[in-house]
Amino acid sequence: GKKPLRQRVVEELKHYYNGFHLLWTDTKVAARMVWRLLHGQVLTRRERRRLLRTCADLFRLVPFLVFVIVPFMEFLLPVFLKLFPEMLPSTFETESKKEEKQRKKLNAKLELAKFLRETIAEMARRNKAATG
């Protein structure tokens, strides 16, 4: 069944609130990391990735805010997300989108592994033919 309009609107507002809250928390943590970098400390790989992700999210926030601030432009957001899937900051992604991304990455890895396995098998056959 389809949810009532009021419930869907409330869920969307909660989603945006949580997304902005997570982005604010990530920004505070990233600011501390930058402070540590400026004072000569070295970041771990995990911290470096988090800092880069947060910076990318802040840059993605600018076009996203246009959709939030301009009245009735949020109705065009699904169209732009279809055209530019990486436009949303990572804190605004839904679980289904995250799972879909993971599935696509896994399929790409499986295809690469299959290709490499076939290549190695072909090389082994050629070497066997050359020595035999």
From TrEMBL:
<keyword id="KW-0472">Membrane</keyword>
<dbReference type="GO" id="GO:0030003">
    <property type="term" value="P:intracellular monoatomic cation homeostasis"/>
</dbReference>
<dbReference type="GO" id="GO:0043022">
    <property type="term" value="F:ribosome binding"/>
</dbReference>
<protein>
    <submittedName>
        <fullName>LETM1 protein</fullName>
    </submittedName>
</protein>
<keyword id="KW-0999">Mitochondrion inner membrane</keyword>
<keyword id="KW-0812">Transmembrane</keyword>
<dbReference type="Pfam" id="PF07766">
    <property type="entry name" value="LETM1_RBD"/>
</dbReference>
<keyword id="KW-1133">Transmembrane helix</keyword>
<feature type="transmembrane region" description="Helical">
    <location>
        <begin position="58"/>
        <end position="81"/>
    </location>
</feature>
<dbReference type="InterPro" id="IPR044202">
    <property type="entry name" value="LETM1/MDM38-like"/>
</dbReference>
<dbReference type="GO" id="GO:0005743">
    <property type="term" value="C:mitochondrial inner membrane"/>
</dbReference>
<dbReference type="InterPro" id="IPR033122">
    <property type="entry name" value="LETM1-like_RBD"/>
</dbReference>
<feature type="domain" description="Letm1 RBD">
    <location>
        <begin position="43"/>
        <end position="128"/>
    </location>
</feature>
<keyword id="KW-0496">Mitochondrion</keyword>
